[in-house]
Amino acid sequence: MKIGVYVCHCGGNISEVVDIKKVMEFAEQQGDVALVKDHAHMCSDVARKMLVDDIKEYGLDKVVIAACSPQFHGRTFMGTVEKAGLSPYVMEMANIREQCSWPHYYQPELATKKAKDIVKMAIVKARLDEPLEKKTSPIGKRVLVIGAGIAGIQAALDLGDAGFKVYLVEKEPSIGGKMAKLSRTFPTEDCAACILSPKMADVPANPNIELLTNTEIESISGFLGNYDVVAVRKPRYVDITKCTACDKCAEACPVVVPNEFDEGLSSRKAIYLPNPIAVPHAYVLDDKSCLGLFPLACSKCYDVCDAGAINYDEKPERINFTVDTIIVATGYEIFDPRKKKVYEFAKSKNVLTALDLERLISLEAEGTVLRPIGRRIAFIQCVGSRDELVGNEYCSRICCMYATKLSQLLKRADPKRDVYVFYVDLRAFGKGFEEYYKRAQRTGVKFIRGRVAELHEDSHTHKVRLKVEDTLTREIIESEFDLVILSVGLRPSEGTTKIADTLRLIKSPGGWLQEAHPKFRPVDTLADGVFICGCAQGPKDIPDTVAQASAAAARAIRLMNKGEYEVDPITAFVDEKLCSGCGICAGVCPYEAITIELKDGKRISRVNEVVCQGCGACVASCPSGAQQQRWFMTSQLHAMLSAALGEEV
Amino acid sequence: MKKLIITSENVKFLQKINELADQDITLCEQCGTCSASCPMVAEMDITPSQLMRMVQLGLKEVMETKAMWVCASCYTCTVRCPRGLDVAKVAEALRQVYLRKALDYIEIKKIPKYEFVSLPQIAIVSACRKFTG
Amino acid sequence: MIFERKPLDIDKIKVTSGEVHIIKDRCKGCGFCIEYCPRDVLELSEEFNIKGYHPPRVKNPDNCVECHLCEMLCPEFAIYVTKKEDAKVSAR
């Protein structure tokens, strides 16, 4: 055996504290050490080339690098050693920076002593290292996208265009999500439905996308490359291949209920078209409000349908399929304004949410005036956001901009309007946002800095009086308005919360799905093969949502593109001679990677090495020592302990 | 024009109020909810959020204002603060700083009888409450 | 959550409205029509018919949307519905 030991100065970070020469001399005295060198920067191109040359020239078969943390440059040196023809797992890093020179900066002598111990531990571990090889596991080209709002649609289209098979599951009868409800989008004031519609139309046109609407996920089991999905398709009672959307059924239907798409401000029948740009463009029968299907009470819709599209006998259908990766795009819902009792949403006629106003404006644009909007309008910002009283400490990111946009739409429709925006901060962070805000100020919209404390609607005049402090002039304002709009914040949708439970995903404060790393892995999760995008990950506007959706698609393609993916060999394995099948390891594994099976009549533990994340819990829990972890064998750990405690190894 | 120089005196004042009020007043984001909720704000010379601001900057001039005395301790500001701050307690802390100086200390025995008889009852009661500590 | 509000256009929507006709003496008091009416239009009356049963009576005439379920369920053909031209909306 020939171990090469390299001690890095780390540009002074180590050499200023630790006596490099003493460490090198110490290393030379250890058994099996063939070569000891030092270098100012081991991670530099020059030093790594030297390492490769040394391995070849001196025939080194194990390498110890005493430098920074393996979290930092571990992968770097593993790559270098692999280039020289060795297994990356015969390279050991002795961390004498984060765990030595940095914390013990003021005690150089003790630091040097500790550095020697750390190097010795690395050497004894390296002696027992096996030349492990990375394994690969096959992976197909099937993706499940949960949620078909703009995020899910974008991800599905990217994946479909790239040649991957996509199952796009949406629980509503139509795709499009919340964006379909908006009037115009900031800062360009593009018509939301107009720009969304072509994207929605592309979805069924893409041969690689299987669109499952009115469908919910019941369960998902398995792991990367092998996710078994059970989805339940709720009955629509209308055959989408036959329905011509002629509206005769809705005309005949005698049941009138609030229309969810218009936030309850308009009505629909029990059989209805989900929204004007619905995809699939077919009607759906709401069995909860229908007069009755068992027994069949009415059948007026069936009687008038010329296309014969209505079928009362449809039953919920369970759909099973397997996918390789999953993208979660389940979106948001708005904050329930009834939770802020000071804003009296439930008992006022003239207090509405911003989403209500979006619907009113959209409908007015197509000629339907549900109610007059009035002359004096106030926007109240930060409703349900930045508010510890309702448990939402975060900022919802889009409300400042959407209030500015709505103020512009109102002003343009009637320039004599008096529009006020009562804000706490005006967050115009994105491209073109600050310019848009400036434009809004020019049109005479009054932006007043103050959080509205309370409001009250007069029971006779129905005008809304609110009380706010203009914090910039320190005046208390009490003023009456025709209409008050609550700029409600965002909350994770019900679907987001449910999927987090189904896939056991971690949640961030606020209930959003947690990304693997806030800076470097914003669309990954810590579950291999599961990606998140859009508002399921956190509140954001449409450009950011689309960017994240494409990012998630790219990350999924990255995993699936080569047809196989690398599996870290640092996994647990079972010594079947020692295993008694007690099952303690299976219970301890947080990833459910261990199963107890019958082999030749004996109960044996088996580790799924693809799912195993190498945490070591099973190894620690095994009473007979049958569970072992590669690269951290019990023999290695014992040797390291002995070295640290000063015993002869 | 004011030269805003935050001295160690200002910092000490803020720390004292923080300790008395048992919270971190730097967390106030000056949203104005407390001022707009206050039923007595019309009688105040500075608004409650202005009071918080002056304390944040450690400006001892806040002690000369009338606002903290007009405060009715109704706690509406506290229950509505979106950052969870106890604004009423800050007003109380400022009142305490003044009262602990015992500048208006009264010895009941030394009040002349004619004053005692002609003073309104409530004045005597509140004087006993505030100025005999 | 939003569905506590009454839709703003509810007064403009016209739906079919029905008039219930009960042939009292055919009724055998089974109660199916009352039980299954999806709009809660009928209730048991206090009076007796010639057979000694309590026939149904119309409780909420404005609620009927002429779905004809009572007509189809009645085993004795004792109830039928005709279409009323004057439609007044009552949503659920």
Automatic annotation (TrEMBL), chain A:
<keyword id="KW-0285">Flavoprotein</keyword>
<feature type="domain" description="4Fe-4S ferredoxin-type">
    <location>
        <begin position="602"/>
        <end position="632"/>
    </location>
</feature>
<dbReference type="Pfam" id="PF12831">
    <property type="entry name" value="FAD_oxidored"/>
</dbReference>
<protein>
    <submittedName>
        <fullName>Disulfide reductase</fullName>
    </submittedName>
</protein>
<dbReference type="GO" id="GO:0051539">
    <property type="term" value="F:4 iron, 4 sulfur cluster binding"/>
</dbReference>
<keyword id="KW-0408">Iron</keyword>
<keyword id="KW-0274">FAD</keyword>
<dbReference type="GO" id="GO:0016491">
    <property type="term" value="F:oxidoreductase activity"/>
</dbReference>
<keyword id="KW-0560">Oxidoreductase</keyword>
<dbReference type="InterPro" id="IPR017900">
    <property type="entry name" value="4Fe4S_Fe_S_CS"/>
</dbReference>
<dbReference type="InterPro" id="IPR036188">
    <property type="entry name" value="FAD/NAD-bd_sf"/>
</dbReference>
<feature type="domain" description="4Fe-4S ferredoxin-type">
    <location>
        <begin position="234"/>
        <end position="264"/>
    </location>
</feature>
<keyword id="KW-0411">Iron-sulfur</keyword>
<dbReference type="InterPro" id="IPR017896">
    <property type="entry name" value="4Fe4S_Fe-S-bd"/>
</dbReference>
<dbReference type="Pfam" id="PF12838">
    <property type="entry name" value="Fer4_7"/>
</dbReference>
TrEMBL record, chain B:
<feature type="domain" description="4Fe-4S ferredoxin-type">
    <location>
        <begin position="19"/>
        <end position="49"/>
    </location>
</feature>
<dbReference type="InterPro" id="IPR009051">
    <property type="entry name" value="Helical_ferredxn"/>
</dbReference>
<dbReference type="GO" id="GO:0005886">
    <property type="term" value="C:plasma membrane"/>
</dbReference>
<keyword id="KW-0411">Iron-sulfur</keyword>
<dbReference type="InterPro" id="IPR017900">
    <property type="entry name" value="4Fe4S_Fe_S_CS"/>
</dbReference>
<dbReference type="GO" id="GO:0046872">
    <property type="term" value="F:metal ion binding"/>
</dbReference>
<dbReference type="InterPro" id="IPR051460">
    <property type="entry name" value="HdrC_iron-sulfur_subunit"/>
</dbReference>
<dbReference type="InterPro" id="IPR017896">
    <property type="entry name" value="4Fe4S_Fe-S-bd"/>
</dbReference>
<dbReference type="GO" id="GO:0051536">
    <property type="term" value="F:iron-sulfur cluster binding"/>
</dbReference>
<dbReference type="Pfam" id="PF13534">
    <property type="entry name" value="Fer4_17"/>
</dbReference>
<keyword id="KW-0479">Metal-binding</keyword>
<keyword id="KW-0408">Iron</keyword>
<protein>
    <recommendedName>
        <fullName>4Fe-4S ferredoxin-type domain-containing protein</fullName>
    </recommendedName>
</protein>
TrEMBL record, chain C:
<keyword id="KW-0408">Iron</keyword>
<dbReference type="InterPro" id="IPR050572">
    <property type="entry name" value="Fe-S_Ferredoxin"/>
</dbReference>
<keyword id="KW-0411">Iron-sulfur</keyword>
<dbReference type="GO" id="GO:0046872">
    <property type="term" value="F:metal ion binding"/>
</dbReference>
<feature type="domain" description="4Fe-4S ferredoxin-type">
    <location>
        <begin position="54"/>
        <end position="84"/>
    </location>
</feature>
<dbReference type="InterPro" id="IPR017900">
    <property type="entry name" value="4Fe4S_Fe_S_CS"/>
</dbReference>
<keyword id="KW-0004">4Fe-4S</keyword>
<dbReference type="InterPro" id="IPR017896">
    <property type="entry name" value="4Fe4S_Fe-S-bd"/>
</dbReference>
<dbReference type="GO" id="GO:0051539">
    <property type="term" value="F:4 iron, 4 sulfur cluster binding"/>
</dbReference>
<feature type="domain" description="4Fe-4S ferredoxin-type">
    <location>
        <begin position="18"/>
        <end position="47"/>
    </location>
</feature>
<protein>
    <submittedName>
        <fullName>4Fe-4S ferredoxin</fullName>
    </submittedName>
</protein>
<dbReference type="Pfam" id="PF12838">
    <property type="entry name" value="Fer4_7"/>
</dbReference>
<keyword id="KW-0479">Metal-binding</keyword>
